[in-house]
Amino acid sequence: MGGDHGPSVVVSGVSIAIGLLRDVPVRFLLHGDEALIAAELNRHPLAKAVCDIRHTDKVVAMDEKPAQALRRGKGTSLWNAIEAVKTGEAQGAVSAGNTGALMAMSKLILRMAAEMDRPAIVANWPTMQGVSTVLDAGANIQCDAAQLVEFAIMGEAYHRAMHGVARPTVGILNVGSEDQKGHEEVREAHRLLRESNLDMDYRGFVEGNDLAKGTVDVVVTDGFTGNVALKTAEGMARFFASEMRGALTSSLMSKIGAVIASGALKKMRAKLDPSSVNGGPLLGLNGVVVKSHGGADDRGFANAIKVAANLARSHYAEEFKASMSQLGDVLVHAPAEARLAGSEETPE
Amino acid sequence: MGGDHGPSVVVSGVSIAIGLLRDVPVRFLLHGDEALIAAELNRHPLAKAVCDIRHTDKVVAMDEKPAQALRRGKGTSLWNAIEAVKTGEAQGAVSAGNTGALMAMSKLILRMAAEMDRPAIVANWPTMQGVSTVLDAGANIQCDAAQLVEFAIMGEAYHRAMHGVARPTVGILNVGSEDQKGHEEVREAHRLLRESNLDMDYRGFVEGNDLAKGTVDVVVTDGFTGNVALKTAEGMARFFASEMRGALTSSLMSKIGAVIASGALKKMRAKLDPSSVNGGPLLGLNGVVVKSHGGADDRGFANAIKVAANLARSHYAEEFKASMSQLGDVLVHAPAEARLAGSEETPE
Question: What is the pTM assigned to this prediction?
Answer without folding.
Answer: 0.89
